[in-house]
Design goal:
Low-confidence stretches: 1-25, 196-206
Number of strands: 9
Largest sheet: 6 strands, mixed
Strand order of the largest sheet: 1-2-3-4-5-7
Distance between the termini: 29 Å
Number of helices: 7
Structural class: alpha/beta
Radius of gyration: 16 Å
Order of helices and strands: HEEEHEHEEHEEHHEH
């Protein structure tokens, strides 16, 4: 089961953002779609699809940076089960989630965003219905119940969940600036990201 998306993968973080500038001065440690910016010691960055091995890559990232407090999200979405597994871990650790200005978090990525304590979207946050590769109504309903259960535990308002369920999988509902506030999508913020200069180059993980 996966989340269908009409958005292309976001290949890089915003060119004018601090994350992009940090990449010019030091190499990030990389675990699949996850990376550890050396000048953001509290941050794990998700920049890519929720694909095969996603949860395992997250485990490696969190093992390498066990005191991380913030997830910075830039993803078109992907596999539902993998995103929910990471979302539950983010929530249990009390991590904050951020969609930075110029970034996007769509489909399954939104589950990770909603797990944040606190959570803040300055970029785009999009949701829609789940979609299945095979016509298995029982499996689809089981997966949907897992999604709704997780969102309820994360304190997501019913209005947000209803909007997700009303949006076909081939479409994407992107929350407006007003909705982010009035529907309590952004919750408990603002989230401040500590930045320090680290001159040492960190080699990529094999």
């Amino acid at each position: 089961i996966y989340i269908a998306s009409n958005f292309r993968p976001l290949d890089s973080l915003p060119p004018d953002g601090e994350v992009k500038k940090s990449a010019a001065t030091a190499t990030r440690t990389q675990f699949g779609a996850f990376s550890l910016p050396p000048n953001m010691p509290d941050v794990i960055v998700l920049d890519g699809e929720v694909a095969d091995g996603f949860y395992q890559d997250f485990e490696k990232a969190i093992s390498a940076r066990p005191d991380a407090k913030i997830m910075l999200l830039n993803s078109p979405g992907g596999y539902v089960d993998s995103a929910l597994a990471v979302a539950r871990e983010v929530h249990s650790r009390g991590m904050a989630t951020v969609v930075g200005d110029g970034m996007g978090c769509y489909s399954a990525c939104s589950y990770i965003f909603f797990a944040g304590q606190p959570r803040e979207a300055d970029g785009e946050l999009g949701v829609h219905q789940i979609s299945a590769e095979v016509a298995d109504l029982v499996l689809a309903q089981t997966t949907l119940s897992d999604v709704i259960d997780a969102l309820n535990k994360f304190g997501v308002q019913q209005t947000v969940i209803v909007q997700m369920l009303r949006t076909p999988p081939e479409d994407m509902y992107v929350f407006s600036t007003t909705e982010l506030t009035t529907w309590d999508v952004n919750h408990g913020g603002p989230v401040r990201i500590a930045k320090v200069d680290v001159p040492d180059v960190v080699p990529p993980v094999e």
